[in-house]
Amino acid sequence: MRIEFLSTNAHAVLDENRTGMPYVIIYAGNIFLGNFMKLSVLIPVFNEQRTLREIIQRAMSQKIDGISALEIVVVDDASTDDSRVIIHELHQDYPDIIHPILLEQNQGKGNAIHTAIKAASGDIAIIQDADLEYDPKDYEIVLRPILNGEADVVYGSRFAEREQRRVLYFRHTLANRFLTFVSNWFTDLNLTDMETCYKAFRLQVAKTIPIRSKGFGIEPELTAKFAKRKLRIFEVPISYHGRTYNEGKKITWSDGWEALWTILKYWVIDDMFEGDFGHKDLIDMEAAPKYTEWTLQRTKPYVGKRLLEIGSGIGNNVRILMQYTDVIATEVDPVYLEVLNNAYGNTPGVDVQVWDANQPPPPDMPQPDTILCSNVLEHIEDDRQVIQNADLALKPGGRMIIIVPRGQNLYSTLDSAIGHYRRYDKDQLRSLFEDLEYEIEELFTLNKIGVLGWWWRGKIAKQGAIGRFGLKLFNILVPIFKLIDPILPWKGLSLVIVARKPS
Question: What CATH number does residue 365 fall under?
Fold first, then answer.
């Protein structure tokens, strides 16, 4: 896949003829999917000899505008019937399309789908059960929102009104609707069919999501993680031809209990990124919005009409800043850009931009009258260069607001774990502006009570993370900490400087 980061005119570039390969264009933080995409159909199989050949042939026969290539990843979960024979025969007939994976031990649908996701090489993937309950003729309607660049994930709903469906088990329908209701309650989504097989998604995103469920718990697990990742989720109606237990239906009431447990589990646990895609600290900070608001409210009097934030991450500050100023949210990390665009891409007054602050700002980037750099500078080796680049972006007479961790004597395992190069004192922070002749309007510390917790966890207990529970507790107590902060006799955990650029 070709990926381009552009700072030129988007429409001119998008109108160019790009044929023969899929592409993604990222312009001003927005992701544009090209029209030449490869589809990966993911088929978990366990004893489906009666329907397997037909469902694969149906999948191969679909012609979808915007899909130029197809692969079918078939994961056999240690079938005991002739499913493996059929898979082998189909692979012999279509070696460039059918990619078989034969597991030696039955581990469940969730494991099979996870295996298929890891092996798939397409741009978009759709899960396809090996029976005939779901018809590949619906691929077009399910995939269209992704192909149009409107969605990251699409659910095919059996309960949304559209076409015909076979009338079967009332109690199963009731159970599905109940599980969907519970899932919606904890994810704050409004799905009609969380348990549907037809889930399509951008494969690049799915590969960064850890899948722990081995069985049917994969449905609520994926839903919870899609929601917490703030992905753009669409739902479309599909046809459904359910089968009876005599015809091979496998799901049981125990699977319902597993789904219920999974919903509750991933409401509590934030396990959203695979491998190096941790970003756990920013996700954990979502549990302490009162602290974020406290910090930003303290500097609000210095904020102008247009604020640029350096390193917006997943938007913890943006959702507060947008209430009283226009925001230019900048990032360079593709995962963060994905989250920002999903959350704020269509929000009036918020402009998501691609900018690495280690480099000069793009010439077409809007010029702000305020720049905020909150808990970013300590992660960058050459912090002075970032300040100089920010100066190039800032209007004359504008202000920089820099928030950093205070006190090198507090540097601990917590700092090391989250990638801090340093902590700052007042003179060190002030010196970053010496060559720029900025006026230092205010320089102060904040969150004095936090010093005690940081010292204990990082210096004494040698921990590597505060943890979401600790942040939730801290968030509850923020009003008290805010009240006593001015009277405590020591310096705070955070250091804040407000510096004004010469007119």
Answer: 3.40.50.150
* CA 172 from centre of chain: 32
Do 309 and 199 belong together in one domain?
no
Of 225, 241, 268, the residue at which a domain comes to its end is 268
- d(CA 473, CA 450) in angstroms, rounded, equals 12
Tokens of 493: 């955990």
Average pLDDT, the chain: 86
Amino acid code (one letter) for 261: W
Distance CA 166, CA 239 (A): 9
Joined tokens for residue 279: 């970003």
Domain co-membership, 176 together with 286: no
Give me the pLDDT at residue 5, please.
44
Whole-angstrom distance, CA of residue 435 vs CA of residue 415? 28
Tell me the C-alpha distance between 495 and 491, whole Å.
Answer: 9
Residues 334 and 381 in one domain: yes
CA 149, CA 2: separation in Å to the nearest integer? 16
- Three-class DSSP category at 496: strand
Domain total for the chain? 3
| Token pair of 229 as six digits | 């990742």
Q: What is the CATH number of the domain that holds 111?
A: 3.90.550.10
Task: Please tell me whether residues 285 and 194 are part of one structural domain.
Answer: no
Range of the domain at 222: 35-268
Any residues with CB less than 8 A from the CB of 220 and at least 6 apart, and which? 179, 183, 194, 195, 259, 262, 263, 266
The tally of CA atoms less than 13 A away on the side-chain side of residue 185 is: 9
CA distances from 494 to 238, 291, 380, 423 (A): 53, 11, 17, 9
pLDDT in tens, 213-263: 998 889 999 999 999 888 889 999 998 875 444 444 445 657 668 888 999
- Work out the number of other CB atoms within 10 angstroms of the CB of residue 221: 22
Shared domain check, 22 and 51 = no
DSSP state of 216: T
Torsion of CA 106, 108, 109, 111, to 10 degrees: -90
**Are 284 and 416 within one domain?**
yes
Residues 92 and 215 in one domain: yes
290-311: per-residue pLDDT in tens?
A: 999 999 999 999 999 999 999 9
What single letter denotes the amino acid at residue 158? R
Domain identity same for 331 and 374: yes
